[in-house]
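We emphasize that the prediction below concerns an isolated chain of 815 residues; any contacts that depend on oligomerization or on bound cofactors are therefore not represented. The input was used exactly as deposited, without trimming of termini.
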Amino acid sequence: MRFMFAVIVICLAGVGLAAADPADSHLKRPINVPPQTLESALHAFSQATGYHLVYISEDVHSRRSAGAVGRLNAEEALSEILGGTGLTYRFLDTHTISIMPDGAVTAPGRKKAVTGATAGSPLTRADPPASAAAVQPVGTAARADRSSAVPTLEEVIVTAEKRAQRLIDVPESVTVLSGAELRQANIHSVLDLSYSVPSLVVDDTGGGYERYFIRGVGNGNGATSLVGVYLDDADITNESVAQLDVNMTDLKRVEVLKGPQGTLYGDGSAGGTIRYVTNDPDLAAFSAFGDVSLYGTRFGSPSQVVSAVVNAPLLTDTLGLRMVGTYGDIGGWVDQPAAGRRNINDQNLRDVRVKGLWRPTAALSVKSLVEVHRNSSNGAETGADANYNLTLAVYPTLATPFVSDFDVYNVDVSYDLTGVNLLSSTTYLDNTTHGVFGLEYPVAYPPTPPLQFINDPDSRNDASFSQEIRATSRGTGRLHWVTGAFFKHQTVDYTTDYALSFGGPVLGTGSSIDDEGSKSVSIYGDGNYKVGTRFTVGAGLRDFRDDRTEYDGVLYRSGTFHSVDPRLYASYALSPDADLYANVADGFRSGGFNGGDGVPESTFAPEKVRSYEMGVKAAVLDGRLSGDLALFFTRYGNYQIFVNTPNGIGELENGGTAHIKGVDASVQWRTTEHLSVAASGSVTNSRFVSIAPGEVTVDVGDPVDYTAEYMGRLSGIYQFQMGRDLPAFVRVDYSQIGPESTTDRGEGGPPILVESDVIHMLDGRIGVRRGVWTLDLFATNLLGDNGNEDPGSAFGIGARPRPRTVGIEISGATQ
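Result of the prediction step, given as a token string:
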């Protein structure tokens, strides 16, 4: 009740009203708000601009602001004043702005003070919790609703280019999903995420790992990745076939950057980058949130997942912790009839994330993050047939358990100077996995049955230390820039014992060792300049040097790989809410070594990717309809391709050059006060245009492996009142992913040309809230699609969607 009777402070200034045009939030004016208490800073802002500010005094009390100085518009000034405070803003009308806690740290059920709205209008209602009727993304700044009672879509603020920007101002294609959107759309893993993001393909490689592809770039061969992965500013990019399964509980948002990100994100981001942005601790108030999910899967055993979030300010406005824990007893649905085992792919998941924030002054902040992830299973789901049965020809009764553990430790130190922010980000990652995996690899050698390759066991340890030093311009002048240096030391120790067979008795066994090391250093810079009022041009460059080593138990090899990767871009503002842009960017992946066990020594060169992109982003109908469209063309050179060798292990070669072209688009429309709809999709065409001399695995005209020909998604959410103080919603999502393919012409027999199935996914969710409690019913894969999600089925490792799953989720929060 205290929030219903909160004190509303409205700051008015006659001088400001006379000097400013409050109807235009984009009008730049001199702003001079030095660092001070947040309440005083907001009062100074109101005097300078003439806007009415509405907030709950408790939300602002005891917080400090870094201020804002320069020639800024209202949105730019507010973003700087509220930066790091845990608060955001929303235009209620052309003269009034509401200051409120960022939705990501606001307990469900908390009411936010508003003004300037008539009774019964959307603005007079309490904001819904993250799991019920929350259409607007978390962590956003909102535009004014200038013309009607229909609420507008939110303007999303991202840090894709290592500084805070409106999504519409970023001159490249970026898909953003808020924490609320992730919960509503039943997205709990990156595999779920792939159904919602155009041009993103994720394949389950077993053992708790996934392989990522963006716009056809994400080649699963090679030791390093082609899609970068970041947890806040921590680089957690792992091997190409063993990316980490990041827990998505209590995320502020996920940003998927499409196309090469070599300039700002370096090696491993040639196809794009996925950024998981976590919530910071709220230093002003204690809060807690928890939920319990119970669900059942067709053909499988029941599952229970429990999550809890606790936010604790230890020293008000100075020191705080945010603790997130998840425990999952996740039932399996794959059987192994020959062994008499059922539901072998169950999982025992434990994940804890602790994030600390220390802000001794308005200019200095120190963030620390620790994530401990433990997951184990009695068997992997890869290789199961359409009836979800696993058959192993060599060892039919062999168990295929896995253990997947990783720890992430990160410390970020940020300091604001006049006009410049300095950042140091230090990260340590330790990842260990053990598993038993079966692989059927068709070859033409007699006898005719396929070669069976069984890893028993397969052990992998990946450890890395990285350090980034970065300087970023502050303020809102014509010039923006970022520059920095990045160091990473990574080691991969991989050991496997294997057995070989041609569908009958074991013909031989062996052991393989692959210990790899990398010490890389890069220096980068990126800047843009605004010419006039509409046109912006920019450029960037990264110089990368990688000293790599490899040891296979017999041979020790070393070498240095070097890459210089530029970026050029430009944008033109058709209006404050519409941008045209063009972007040319390079990406790369380091090279490596072959040899040993009777195979001659050789080196394969780094892959190089250059992408050309043109696009438009716009919001119309007073902010109720927004969308983006991007056309891209990519030249993919020195493609690293796997070639089978007489020892059965294989090697990597540079197979040739491919061209990839396509389009991706999305649109969101707030059609009425109650209904919102969204659509997104992509079409991609890839072909090899030249082949290296002697290369036999692919031919000119063959598609690039694991490239989905098309993807599409439709979503709709309807919000309504079930009764007094019972806000509710219904959401439906339909996704379709076109076929992916893989090609192998190098086995001496007929070419292996395999396509995955077209996947249709229909999901739904119904939620209702009463006070601080919410109740959701959800279902996934309502169509019961059991097709092969990737062409790995040709080698006995293809995955299929989880069967139809239906469940209930109950959540609650502190007041």
